[in-house]
């Protein structure tokens, strides 16, 4: 164990941290893991070619806490996560954190206890706090819609329409991760892709508690609205030949209307790609998004920072 006394009677948990240019935040992240209340953790940190002083900070922390540390040339997030899983992971369970985020100190303990007591679930998730660059809680930014129904919201069909799972709140059985083939290395929405695969073969549980802090600093991938919505669309479309046609038509029609509405504010040309006069499925959600989209196309014009939703 790192940071505490080793207790090999407990299931080993592998915690992966892919580090990239987060020198200002990486120490908070590492300390939140080595100080977990759970007593059998292997921490795996791979720095993906950081150009700031992350290396010096990580070397100092590794010397103090003895976790696995590797430095590499930049290969991207998904490939780094898969490398960590294949090369270093030995745990029964697997979880992680972005190098700019950090965990509540009882996250691992509570989630292991749940999964040990509920073998029918392949993955567990919960809630996250949003914090600013100084680690202070913020309430006016929401990057992901909340879980409405703790059972229905986490079924495959529901996740296709609305990914309500914060990635930093997740813990999986390693065998489920392996069965899903790890992360998709051809998308920037690798978490969404993985969660769909997990829900396809297993059950996902929701615990109504906070497990992590997501740091909002304006450079998060979620600020890249066009890239995120385009990648999500491609992931959904990849299920076309695997699911029932009526379900696909419903999901893709609703998603197209949502993309149209969201992108119409700042990415007007791209938004029109998702508008359909005669979609294969219609409901009030689609109509509402079409109306909102046309309003944004005609009346909302501004430059500057990208907006999320």
Annotate the secondary structure layout.
Blueprint (H helix, E strand, L loop, with lengths): L12 E7 L6 H9 L6 E8 L5 H12 L2 E5 L4 H11 L5 E4 L5 E2 L3 H11 L3 E11 L24 H6 L9 E3 H6 L10 H12 L1 E13 L9 H13 L7 H19 L4 H4 L12 H16 L10
Parallel strand pairs: 1-2, 1-4, 2-3, 6-8
Antiparallel strand pairs: 4-7, 5-8, 6-7
Helicity range of the residues? 25-40%
Q: What are the segments in which pLDDT stays under 50 over at least 5 consecutive residues?
A: 303-309
- The helix/strand class is alpha/beta
Per DSSP E runs of 2 or more residues, the count of β-strands stands at 8
Give the number of helices. Answer: 11
- How far apart are the first and last residues' alpha carbons, in Å? 41 Å
Mean pLDDT: 92
Can you summarize the main beta sheet?
8 strands, mixed
Q: Calculate Rg over CA atoms.
A: 20 Å
- The SSE string, one letter per element, is EHEHEHEEHEHEHHEHHHH
Beta strand %: 15-25%
Across the major sheet, the strand order is 3-2-1-4-7-6-8-5
Query: Which geometry do the CA atoms define?
Result: globular
């Amino acid at each position: 164990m790192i940071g505490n006394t080793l207790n090999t009677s407990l299931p080993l948990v592998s915690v992966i941290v892919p580090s990239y240019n987060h020198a200002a935040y990486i120490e908070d992240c590492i300390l939140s893991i080595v100080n977990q209340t759970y007593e059998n953790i292997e921490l795996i940190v791979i720095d993906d070619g950081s150009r700031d002083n992350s290396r010096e900070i990580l070397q100092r922390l590794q010397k103090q806490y003895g976790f696995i540390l590797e430095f590499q040339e930049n290969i991207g997030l998904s490939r780094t996560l898969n490398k960590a899983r294949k090369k270093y992971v030995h745990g029964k369970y697997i979880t992680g954190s972005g190098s700019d985020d950090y965990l509540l100190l009882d996250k691992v303990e509570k989630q292991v206890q749940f999964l040990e007591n509920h073998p029918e679930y392949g993955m567990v998730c919960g809630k996250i706090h949003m914090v600013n660059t100084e680690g202070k809680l913020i309430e006016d930014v929401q990057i992901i819609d909340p879980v409405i129904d703790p059972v229905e919201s986490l079924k495959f069909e529901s996740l296709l329409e609305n990914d309500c799972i914060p990635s930093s709140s997740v813990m999986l059985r390693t065998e489920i991760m392996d069965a899903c083939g790890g992360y998709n290395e051809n998308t920037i929405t690798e978490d969404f892709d993985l969660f769909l695969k997990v829900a396809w073969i297993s059950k996902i549980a929701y615990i109504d508690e906070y497990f992590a802090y997501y740091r909002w600093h304006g450079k998060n991938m979620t600020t890249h609205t066009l890239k995120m919505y385009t990648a999500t669309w491609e992931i959904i479309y990849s299920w076309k030949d695997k699911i029932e046609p009526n379900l696909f038509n419903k999901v893709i029609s609703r998603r197209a209307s949502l993309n149209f509405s969201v992108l119409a504010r700042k990415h007007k040309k791209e938004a029109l790609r998702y508008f359909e006069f005669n979609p294969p499925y219609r409901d009030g959600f689609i109509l509402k998004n079409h109306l909102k989209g046309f309003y944004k196309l005609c009346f909302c014009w501004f430059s500057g920072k990208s907006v999320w939703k």
